[in-house]
Amino acid sequence: MKKLIATALMTTALTAPAFAQDTISEFRIGLLGGENAQDRLASNECFRAYAEEALGVPTRLFTAADYNGVIQGLIGGTLDMAWLGASAYAAVYVEDPDAVEPVLVKTNLDGSFTYHSIGFARADSGITSLDDMEGQVFGFGDPNSTSGYLIPLVEIPAAGYPMEPGEFFSDVVFTGGHEQTIVAVANGDIAGGVTWADGLGDWEDGYNSGALRRASDAGLVDMNDLVEIWKSKPIPEGPIVLRSALPEDVKQTMFELTANLHANDEACAYGVAAGETAGFTPIGHEAYETIIAVRRSQMN
């Protein structure tokens, strides 16, 4: 792989803890829930193969049924790397601040690293805004999702739409993940829900990247059958994290591999990033302090 990121930059982003391992015998990458396991594995297989070649040890992908499976794997040390949402990173940090290090973030085609929680409904439902959701069933994805729960849980009530079932929405339910929410709305099982997208490009494509783009690419939904009814303020894209106790050379290898993925294999980067991306750029803990504060506030 081409070396496009300077070693000095890598060592700035990665700090070896006192309890770091000397060697590894395998490398384990966790994939967040929200999409069926087969599709998640297929989208990330190219990256797994690159990692195995670069590290020289067996490298495995692990698909959890929900976000918490990956969160607990990172905290417990049974996973070495994952792309987390901002709220999932906050969950790890709140439980164990020393478990992982945020090192890289996916960037959009315009160079930004934010995305949105997107509220949506069926186009033939007559629902065009949250006002029209009164008395209807609203769907969240996963309780550890930023866009599928945490941000809409804060922003939608602040806009005047209480989330307590029966107060405005007839019911508020968890679907199990982003893909499940999209399918549930498309099938008419729930009237509306939230998922994530970068908010760039065309609605008909599912925007440039995100769960809608992935579902559209997979043929699960025709975006013309759906309509956007709400959009959150910009949310910081979640970080790619590495287990803090990994050997420093392993962390630097994976940092460089991921940072250069788009330049070396754009098609692979498309699958890993759930759509169009300008690549992955360094990021640190400070970018997520606001999300951590929001997460803590919801715990009280």
Structure notes:
This protein has eleven helices and twelve strands. Residues 1-18 have low confidence and may be disordered. The chain is globular and about 60 Å long. The protein has helices at residues 7-13, 37-55, 67-76, 86-95, 146-158, 178-186, 211-217, 248-259, 261-264, 266-272, 289-299, and strands spanning 27-31, 59-63, 81-83, 100-107, 114-122, 137-140, 171-174, 192-197, 226-231, 235-236, 239-243, 279-282. Helix 2 packs across helix 10, helix 3 packs parallel to helix 4 and helix 4 (86-95) crosses helix 11 (289-299). It has 300 residues and is an alpha/beta fold. It has two domains: 7-109 and 238-299, 3-Layer(aba) Sandwich (D-Maltodextrin-Binding Protein, domain 2), CATH 3.40.190.10; 114-235, Periplasmic binding protein-like II (D-Maltodextrin-Binding Protein, domain 2, 3-Layer(aba) Sandwich). The protein has a six-stranded mixed beta sheet with strand order 2-1-3-11-4-12, sandwiched between helices. Strands 5, 6, 7, 8, 9 and 10 form a six-stranded mixed beta sheet that branches.
